[in-house]
Structures are given as C-alpha cells and as structure tokens.
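Why does residue order matter? Because the sequence determines the fold. Keep that principle in mind as you read this record.
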Amino acid sequence: MTTELEPADRAREIIEANRYMTLGTVEPDGRARVSPVYYAPDGHSVLYWISSPAAQHSRNVAERPDVSIVVFDSQAPIGQAQAVYMTGHAALVPESDLDDCAEVACRARFPEQQPFPLDELRGPAPFRLYCADVTEHEIHVRGSDPVHGTGIDRRMGVTLS
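Structure:
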C-alpha cells in the first residue's frame, strides 16, 4: 500500500487489500469487546462477515448494534502503519435477504478461498451472515506524513462514495 494516495483513495485501498477487520462491540456491562473477523466488503461502506450467533460479539450486536471497526495491515513495518477506522450499525442479515447479500459476502475475494456454502447460514446451521453499514470513515495519518502530518499521529475523516 502506498502513502502517496489521497486520503479517501488510501482508505479505499486499505479496505480492499485486507482480509480481517477488528470489530468493536459493547458488552452487557458496558466494556468494549474487540474481535478479529474475516470480512467481505460491498463497496467501502458495507462490510459482511460470518459468525456464530452464539459468539459474544454476535450477542452484543443483537443487543447494541452500534459498532466500531478498524481495518489495517498487521504486517506493515513499524512506522508505516495505515488504518481505516469506521463506525456504523451492524445486524444479522435476515434470511429473507440472505440470497442477495450472500452473493456479495460469500463470493471468493481471493483465489485460494472457496465461497462459503449458503446452506451453512440457514436453519439449524451454526453460522449466520452479519452486515455493518458504515456511517463514518477515518484514516490513520502518521505525524510524519509529508502532506497531512502535524507531528502527531491522528485520525482524519474521509468521505467514501
């Protein structure tokens, strides 16, 4: 990933290039919970993932749909980290919408990955499809960024269409 891109283009590149996001939910006692989940983007403002409804983060989403998300390359060299921070609302995809949403969410993003079988997302199967509608995007700006740096690392809001 390059740092010479415009901020919104940098955010798009980060979302498209990575496989995992860190999903932030709120526990029943108000504490934050973060969970790494494999995701599939539909554009840059809709993110899908597959999880068990019994997982704590899934139960948290059912009770409190507001989520925070971070996508970043965990293999980036020190001092070259880039990230997209997002906030939005998450929910279980209703079975009535599953066929349409699964076309995007379960297709192979990477050649080595096989599409997820839809019969494992219905009825008594142990997994379900979830979706986050992103309402806000921010990028990580290093303090040393030659264009947007201020000497201190910070977040910068970006608009993605």
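Residues 107 and 113 are 9 Å apart (CA to CA).
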